[in-house]
Amino acid sequence: GIAGPISTVPEYHDCQRLIIPGAAGDHFGPMVAIFARNGLGAAWDTLIALETAGVPARALAVAEVFSYDGDYEALGIKKGFNCLYMYTQSTPVAHLPRAFMLPVEREEDCKNPQTTELGHSLEVTPTAYPGLLDKDYPNAARWDQDQKADSTYIGLKCGTAWCEVAGWTLESSPPLDVVAGDPPGIRQVKGWYDRQRLAIPNSAWTAGMPESEKLVPSNVYAVVAPTMDLNRVDSASYEGQWVPVANIELEAPLLEYREKLGLTFPGRNKLSYCRGDRTTCKVVGTPVCAAGLPDDKDPWYAKIESSTTSTSPSTTTYKCMKRNRHDNVDLPGTTRWRWLIEDEGIWGRCPFGCCPVT
After folding, report:
1. How far is Cα 344 from Cα 328, in angstroms, rounded to an integer?
2. CA-to-CA distance for 208 and 344, rounded, in angstroms?
3. Local structure of residue 232 (DSSP, 8 states)
4. 266-316 pLDDT, tens digit each
5. 0.90 surpassed by pTM
6. CB atoms < 10 A from the CB of 209, how many?
């Protein structure tokens, strides 16, 4: 597909069950993955060049969307493969982005340029931040949540800007607060971080019900954001010492994630990584480890320190991690939530790979 060699790198892409609002309460709809185009950063200049040259088939797929088990009508997504196409439309002052969703038979079909009158038309809202450069916008695609319609929409890089794509007049998710010491762009451009309405277990679920109904949307949003440009941290920095990689912020208390990850509200919960054994990383107590972890050949640990501004008692939670190596691939220093059947975890950039916290 159009993701090519980056298709298995989670930090470029996103996957989750999309939320469907309803009068009786919001519920999860289909499981849908979005894969950013390899070389997404260069696509914008190509779109402008195609329009300038008067090429009829000037729309290019900037993301591939795959729905595992259903349609999502709000974005024109059908079960199976879909292509998010973009093109530009000139005005006297700018090249404006336009988009449409096109269901296809095969993922390879997303490689085909198209004319601009196809598919399900979508609205595009670009945001450019003063002082930020092209490199300050990651070549990533994310799911995001409308604040009024409570439906899921798409965010992705579009030139020197971040574009939000929806099938309605969008009320964008709120920006993060930026304080002294935060690196430029990291808490402004949404592709670096991930804001998600967290899932919790469905208390009504019983054996025999579909696994897709094991989770329901909570009423709590949470952000996981890098503490710095993670690409600038070398491997040696993690050897036997803790490196802060992300801040996790809840927008309200959520018991399930306090019990699982030690997350408290309000304030920033700090996520750190260390490579080494329990002794060199100074792991206190017994860490939470899945079967087969820690990996004796490549041991990694995560540490989550609860917010220091919360009124709840402070805690420190340790977990084993397995690094998923992606050698010979340029990795973005992003963080995002990781969807799981039982609940949610976190993906974060680590040297030469991605490290999941569950």
Report:
1. 28
2. 22
3. G
4. 999 999 999 999 999 999 999 999 999 999 999 999 999 999 888 888 899
5. yes
6. 11
Residue 329, number of CB atoms within 10 A of its CB: 15
pLDDT digits (tens, 9 = 90+) for 41-99: 999 999 999 999 999 999 999 999 999 999 999 999 999 999 999 999 998 878 999 99
Give the span between the Cα atoms of 50 and 107, in whole angstroms: 23
Indicate the length of the chain as a whole number.
358
Alpha-carbon distance of 284 to 306, in angstroms, equals 15
State the Cα–Cα distance between residues 287 and 266, nearest whole angstrom: 25
Strands 335-339 and 141-145: unpaired
Collapsing DSSP states into helix, strand and coil, what is residue 238? helix
- DSSP-derived 3-state class of residue 357: strand
Query: Which of these, 319, 209, 181, lies nearest to 263 by C-alpha position?
Result: 319
What is the Cα–Cα distance from 14 to 143, expressed in whole angstroms?
A: 7
How many other β-carbons are positioned within 10 Å of the β-carbon of residue 68?
13
How many Å apart are CA 295 and CA 187, to the nearest integer? 33
What is residue 2's DSSP assignment? Answer: T
**How far is C-alpha 357 from the geometric centre of its chain's CA atoms?**
14
What number of helices (H) and strands (E) belong to the chain?
Answer: 2, 19
DSSP 20-89: E--TT--EEEEEEEEEEPTTHHHHHHHHHHHHHTT-SS-BEEEEEEEESS--BGGGTB-SEEEEEEEEEE
- What is the Cα–Cα distance from 193 to 182, expressed in whole angstroms? 13
Task: Answer whether 79's CB lies under 8 Å from 172's CB.
Answer: no
User: Other C-beta atoms within 10 Å of 289: how many?
Assistant: 14
**Cα dihedral across residues 86, 87, 90, 95: positive or negative:** positive
